From TrEMBL:
Key word Signal present: yes
Protein name, per record: DUF5723 domain-containing protein
Taxonomy, superkingdom: Bacteria
Cleaved signal peptide residues: 1-25
Organism the protein comes from: Rhodohalobacter barkolensis
Keyword Signal applies: yes
Alphabetical list of Pfam families matching this protein: DUF5723 (PF18990)
Domain DUF5723 span(s) in chain numbering: 64-494
Keywords for the protein's UniProt record, in alphabetical order: Signal
Lineage: Bacteria, Pseudomonadati, Balneolota, Balneolia, Balneolales
Length: 519
């Protein structure tokens, strides 16, 4: 049997959110611009200007003949993306918008489709946000220098099939009559980057194998100062078994768990104060201690160094290559790029602390007090059970943790290796990128991805962009974008979304170029 409202889930989830709440702060993890997101999310052989600092610094040497010597961007680029196999819109529409009662075989079918049959199987959702408040470029015929400030936030939430069973089934002793994995992992971090990029031409050749002329190979590097802002993580590993829980009997709940929370700053100090008061026998309530403050997210909590680097080769093709008619009439170039981005690690050193709890406990139920239910909870049994669970389990068991002080929490940047090409044929362009993350963190995925995109420029002013991205952190996504590109001014926007989320989950993305001027 089961209770429709999952009181134990309320305790687990509430405790986790109190300790670590990413919402308090406000793909692949490659830097995206309005142009690149419209072209399938590539750009390692395409994106120039100050954004090249974060994609391929060698591209600072591209397109010198199209613009004046100086570029300035104010609010020079905003992008946000989210995705992952936890965001399964297909399953949501199949089961949660049709009025079905989610129990028994219906719950089995839904969760099998969403998570698979293994109760320890994990599904994740990730997000990535970045803002470039200011960026600038100075172009010289032989070299280019660029500066840019980027604000970034990234996070990832993961839950096991067993955790989802607890959400949708409640305290269902028919299902939880054997131990099920109720696991979760959460991580959120935010930081600032101050990047200085430099690129130059390292090789020239007048003619290349009869394919074209004026071969140039550029190399670029962009070291960056990393100023850490906020960090929090939670790792919960547990097994849950429930026996005989009903509205008349609390039954028996066995929960073997081990969790670790890592955080910094005022949040760490508040958790430590709670722990000290608990050890002093004051019977504290955790939610009375956590008081988010804007300073938790705006200050700098540590410093470190990172770097982005790359190499780009460009060849001017013969005028008659790929025909010289219609949309293919005009300059023809082939560009190939290779980049390694986000090398380094963040250091969160302001009051860095870890909090850990582990227990194998058995709880033998609730004293069913009908008078209290009627008088204090208006006859709502679920509210009564939840209140008792909060008092008897929430603080005494899950809130009974140990603390340790760390010199810092070190979080590796979402390093990525990519190779790409861009073929420009007059007003028409084709782009292809292949890449993979070196670590699985945030929206970064070690699963190989392929980005394909094309661009056509009406009157050489209005770009129409379209693309597709396969692999990486989500199902196949489709991309589109447009804008206005003049010699002294440009403006662009791009969007992305997935059509089918059932296998690898949904993904959404959008980017805006900000105000970019050349003079």
């Amino acid at each position: 049997m089961k209770i429709k409202q999952s009181s134990l889930f309320t305790i687990l989830a509430s405790f986790a959110l109190l300790l670590f709440n990413p919402s308090e702060s406000s793909g692949q993890a490659s830097h995206q611009t309005a142009g690149t997101i419209g072209l399938g999310g590539g750009g390692v052989a395409y994106q120039d200007l100050y954004h090249a600092n974060f994609i391929n610094p060698a591209n600072l040497m591209l397109n010198h003949n199209r613009r004046p010597h100086i570029t300035l961007g104010v609010v020079g680029g905003i992008q946000a993306r989210s995705g992952g196999d936890l965001i399964n819109i297909s399953t949501y529409n199949d089961y949660l918008t049709t009025g079905m009662t989610i129990e028994g075989t219906v719950a089995d079918d839904m969760l099998n489709q969403w998570f698979g049959a293994n109760d320890a199987g994990m599904r994740s959702a990730a997000m990535d946000f970045s803002l470039v408040p200011v960026g600038a470029v100075y172009r010289n015929p032989d070299w280019t220098v660029s500066i840019a400030h980027r604000i970034r936030a990234s996070g990832k939430s993961s839950f096991s099939r067993g955790f989802a069973d607890l959400v949708f089934r409640g305290l269902d002793s028919d299902y939880f009559n054997q131990f099920r994995a109720v696991n979760s992992a959460q991580e959120y971090y935010a930081w600032h980057e101050f990047s200085v990029g430099f690129a130059t031409t390292i090789y020239r050749q007048d003619r290349f194998m009869g394919l074209g002329r004026n071969l140039r190979i550029h190399a670029g590097i962009a070291p960056k100062l990393l100023l850490s802002a906020d960090y929090g993580s939670l790792s919960l590993q547990s097994d849950l078994r429930i026996e005989g829980v009903s509205a008349e009997s609390g039954g028996e709940i066995q929960h073997n768990f081990n969790y670790t929370v890592e955080t910094i700053g005022a949040r760490a100090a508040q958790l430590e104060q709670y722990n000290q008061d608990r050890q002093a026998g004051l019977d504290p309530k955790l939610d009375d201690y956590l008081d988010p403050d804007a300073g938790d997210y705006t200050g700098f909590r540590g410093t470190s160094i990172g770097v982005d680097m790359g190499v780009t080769a460009r060849l001017d093709l013969h005028d008659n290559a790929f025909s010289n008619l219609g949309i293919f009439r005009g300059d023809k170039t082939l560009t190939v790029g290779l980049s390694l981005t986000d090398l380094g690690a963040l250091s969160f050193s302001d009051n860095a602390r870890s909090f850990n709890a582990a227990d194998n406990f058995t709880w033998n139920g609730i004293d069913y007090d009908q008078e209290t239910i009627d008088n204090d909870f208006d006859g709502d049994e679920s509210a009564y059970f939840e209140s008792v669970l909060v008092d008897s389990i929430g603080n005494d068991v899950y809130g009974n943790f140990n603390t340790s002080t760390e010199s810092s929490h070190s979080v590796g940047l979402p390093t990525m290796l990519r190779v790409g090409s861009h073929l420009q044929l007059g007003k028409f362009g084709f782009m292809a990128d292949i890449g993979a993350g070196m670590v699985d963190r945030g929206i970064n995925s070690s699963r190989l991805h392929l980005s394909l995109g094309s661009e056509y420029k009406f009157f050489n002013i209005i770009p129409l962009r379209a693309g597709v991205r396969m692999g990486g952190y989500s199902s196949t996504t489709f991309h589109a974008g447009t804008g206005v590109e003049l010699r002294n001014f440009e403006f662009s926007l791009g969007v992305a979304g997935s059509a089918n989320s059932q296998n690898r989950g949904a993904a959404l993305g959008a980017a805006w170029s900000g105000i970019v001027v050349h003079f």
